[in-house]
Amino acid sequence: MPHLKNNKFFSEIRFLLFFLIFAFECFSFVFACDDSILRLVTGVKASDEFSKGLLKMCQLIRSIANDINAFDHASANQKFNDVLKSWVNFSNSFSKNPSISRELDLQKWSDSFHQISTSLGEAKRFLDEKKFQEGHELLEGIVVRMSILASWKQSNEPLETLLNAELLLNSVKPGFKGIGKKELLLGFASFSIELSKLRNKTASESEFESEFTDLSELGKTFQKEVEEAHEYKSSRQLAFYSNLLEKFSKIKAVLLEKRFKDSF
To answer: In terms of C-beta density within 10 A (0-12 exposed, 13-18 middle, 19 or more buried), how is residue 59 classed?
Structure first.
């Protein structure tokens, strides 16, 4: 019957759309600003204006990153101005009044808002100077810092550890913001500490253990390459870093789906 054929057709279309969205999400963990945590939080608590505000800005930042990759610099600049306006309003509403369920160091809360404001200012300066790649490199860190705010709001310490590790990993890309070899190695040591904390928090789940072991080995390889290489910021270092970032992003995706999803 025709309507049965139509139902089958639409079912196949829905499956194809789901597959494409899933494939895009997996790809975006490494190559675009990741708003997955904020989407989870907002999906569960749609009335949470705090998380909704963060999500809206992060989605706009993600769109800016895509515009820069597509060389649509005029659109990127316009959207970034919208982000700045939204951030000012958001900061005025929440920076002095976290209204969270657990006790939190208010200075730590205030400092986080200041760090995001500083990073937004740096990114704006790069875009104004037409240094779009430099501006692009700051966007992921801004999204991660905003996600950390959401983790504090949700009183989710394991998630905060995951995001702290991600923030540190993003900051040790060879050449990032002019980072030198010594600074990179110190930053990587801090990342390794956060990664160890995260590993301990998921120690009871054996399915994650092999993933962490693989990531640890990749980390040792990257660290050794940086320590021993005669040329800093070489193509080999960037390749090792890319492998490390990709592996971490996969672990993050698995943890969000199987470990943290029900904790929001």
So the answer is: middle
Assigned token pair, 89: 């309003």
pLDDT per residue, tens digit, the chain (264 aa), is 544 444 544 444 343 333 333 333 333 333 445 556 565 555 445 457 887 888 889 989 999 999 999 999 999 999 999 999 999 999 998 888 766 555 667 788 889 999 999 999 999 999 999 999 889 989 989 999 998 888 887 777 788 888 999 999 999 988 888 888 889 999 999 999 999 998 887 766 566 778 888 899 999 999 998 888 777 777 888 889 999 999 998 888 888 776 665 554
With beta carbons less than 8 A apart as the criterion, state whether 237 and 222 touch: yes
The structure tokens listed for 9 are 């057709």
Q: How many helices (H) and strands (E) does the chain have?
A: 10, 0
State the maximum Cα–Cα separation within the chain, in Å, rounded to a whole number: 71
CA dist., res. 215 & res. 97, Å (int)? 38
- What is the value of pTM for the model shown? 0.77
Domain spans in the chain, listed from the N-terminal domain onward: 32-155, 156-264
CA gap 184, 7 in Å, rounded: 56
Cβ atoms of 256 and 147 within 8 Å: the answer is no
| Region class of 71: left (phi > 0), else alpha (psi between -120 and 50), else beta | left
